[in-house]
UniProtKB/TrEMBL annotation:
<dbReference type="InterPro" id="IPR000073">
    <property type="entry name" value="AB_hydrolase_1"/>
</dbReference>
<feature type="domain" description="AB hydrolase-1">
    <location>
        <begin position="25"/>
        <end position="250"/>
    </location>
</feature>
<protein>
    <submittedName>
        <fullName>3-oxoadipate enol-lactonase</fullName>
    </submittedName>
</protein>
<dbReference type="InterPro" id="IPR050266">
    <property type="entry name" value="AB_hydrolase_sf"/>
</dbReference>
<dbReference type="InterPro" id="IPR029058">
    <property type="entry name" value="AB_hydrolase_fold"/>
</dbReference>
<dbReference type="Pfam" id="PF00561">
    <property type="entry name" value="Abhydrolase_1"/>
</dbReference>
Length: 269
């Protein structure tokens, strides 16, 4: 049974869902841009059997407040550190997908003592110039037409065509999360991750790291994840077949199994 709470941390009203035994090792789940903690539903249920799971809504998303920007990656990491302090989590396993994985890299570089392990899913360590231009275009569309203007193209990147064509309820659920994202939060977080350039700093990461890639992810393909794997000493890479960007949804059981195995191997650190 999970509990949803509003917590004031880092000057922000943050929405967090907590599940699992209070005395178990903690696992923090950080979602993608234009989503919410709800995208982690399969993993919350799977991990809460043996861990204290903390799935939170990033600034500007879900039930967390969406103040006007500017946001930056350091601020998003500070939000999570404030939340961890409010929940008295001295150390935790971290799992982040896409934007969540960028926050995880920032944490591993600036607050490594907080992390027992780090799992980076469908993310990148650098946004290239063409990617930065794409963010400008998405921001312009959201500000002029709302999040509905982005929904179809986003779903096409996030799920493989067979998964979408099968009429899976998960696709519609994610569509609703996209539509529900406040434009201010979306724009703020786009601006926060748009200048991302951490690749050359990753060799300093000493946290045990698992890298998960979707074989069919058009935006952050396995080659991008391979770069992260090569830069972080000792990192492991696993490529999931029949999965695009939201690999944790499209291949929920496989993702949950890999997380349970990796996190379980590192216990309380």
């Amino acid at each position: 049974m999970s509990q949803v709470r509003q917590i004031e941390a880092n000057g922000l009203s943050q929405c967090v869902e907590i599940a699992g035994p209070a005395d178990a090792p903690a696992v923090v789940l950080s979602h993608s841009l234009a989503c919410s903690r709800a995208m982690w539903r399969p993993q919350i249920e799977a991990l809460a059997k043996d861990h204290l799971v903390v799935a939170y809504d990033t600034r500007g998303h879900g039930g967390t407040a969406a103040p006007d920007g500017p946001y930056d990656l350091e601020l998003l990491a500070a939000d999570l550190l404030g939340l961890a302090e409010a929940l008295t989590l001295p150390r935790f396993h971290f799992v982040g997908l896409s934007m969540g994985g960028m926050i995880g890299q920032q944490l591993a570089l600036t607050a490594p003592g907080k992390l027992i392990s780090l799992t980076l899913c469908a993310t990148t360590s650098r946004i290239p110039p063409e990617g930065r231009k794409a963010f400008d275009e998405r921001i312009a569309a959201a500000e002029s037409q709302g999040m509905a203007a982005l929904a179809e193209a986003t779903l096409a990147r996030w799920f493989t065509e067979p998964f979408r064509a099968a009429g899976r309820p998960e696709v519609e659920a994610i569509r609703q999360l996209i539509l529900a994202t406040p434009v201010a939060g979306f724009v703020g977080c786009c601006r926060a991750i748009q200048p991302l350039d951490l690749t050359d700093r990753l060799p300093a990461v000493r946290t045990p790291t698992l890298v998960l890639a979707g074989q069919d992810d058009p935006g952050m393909p396995p080659a991008v994840m391979q770069t992260i794997k090569e830069q972080i000493p000792g990192a492991q890479l696993c490529v999931l077949a029949h999965a695009a960007h939201l690999l944790n949804v499209e291949q929920a059981e496989t993702t949950s199994g890999l997380l349970r195995s990796f996190i379980g191997a590192h216990g309380r650190g």
